[in-house]
Amino acid sequence: MGTEHDADCLCGGVRIEVSGKIGPVVYCHCSRCRKASGTAFAANADVRRKYWKFLAGEDLIREFESSPGVFRAFCGRCGSPIYSRRPDAPDVLRLRLGILNDDPGRRSLAHFWVGSKAAWFDIADDLPQFAGGPPSMGKNWLPSSRFADDCLTRACSGRRSRAATEPPRR
């Protein structure tokens, strides 16, 4: 299996190609990820921006600042969550794995923010669980990865919400 992946939104208007390795996969149970995805948790993985290419529908992307410095992007036509980004990490987009059309070739490393998980959902796997974001012991618990420095080190935080007008950077 190569490292090229294609993805699209529910209506097919936004189409993306990821040509490089997808970063570590995590399950986030924070309230913002739950509300943004409409599910018990979000399955996310970082992708370096240089590996991300819009094939169609970049003009359909809308962003919402769900907490200070966290912009969630979605298709303006069908509402599918596409990615999130942080201006303080301009070279990384956090891909919403549900839009992939194939196997990313990775499995989740852990469940984060289980302290605020949905009460109606029971975690039934043996993955590590953290009440908050990544553990304070740093990245020692992670498998060795060049991506580890960019991934998983920025937890969901904050409560302020407002519409964002800044388009995604290329």
Note down, in words, how this protein is organized.
This protein is mostly beta strands and 170 residues long. It has a single domain, classed as Metal Binding Protein, Guanine Nucleotide Exchange Factor, Chain A (Beta Complex). Helix content is 4%, strand content 32%. The strands form 2 sheets. Strands 10-3-4-9-8-7-6-11 form an 8-stranded mixed β-sheet. Strands 1-2-5 form a 3-stranded antiparallel β-sheet, with no helix packed on it. The longest helix is centred in the N-terminal third of the chain and has 7 residues, at 31-37.
Strand content: 25-35%
CATH architecture: Beta Complex
- Note the quaternary state here: single chain
Please bin the fraction of helical residues. under 10%
* Mean pLDDT over all positions: 83
- Provide the CATH topology: Metal Binding Protein, Guanine Nucleotide Exchange Factor, Chain A
Quick one: CATH class?
Mainly Beta
Distance between the termini: 27 Å
Total domain modules: 1
Can you write the helix and strand succession as a string? EEEHEEEEEEEE
How would you characterize the largest beta sheet? Answer: 8 strands, mixed
Structural class: mainly beta
Task: Give the spatial strand order of the biggest sheet.
Answer: 10-3-4-9-8-7-6-11
Count of beta strands:
11
Number of helices: 1
**Alpha carbon gyration radius:** 15 Å
Shape: globular
Low-confidence stretches: 140-170
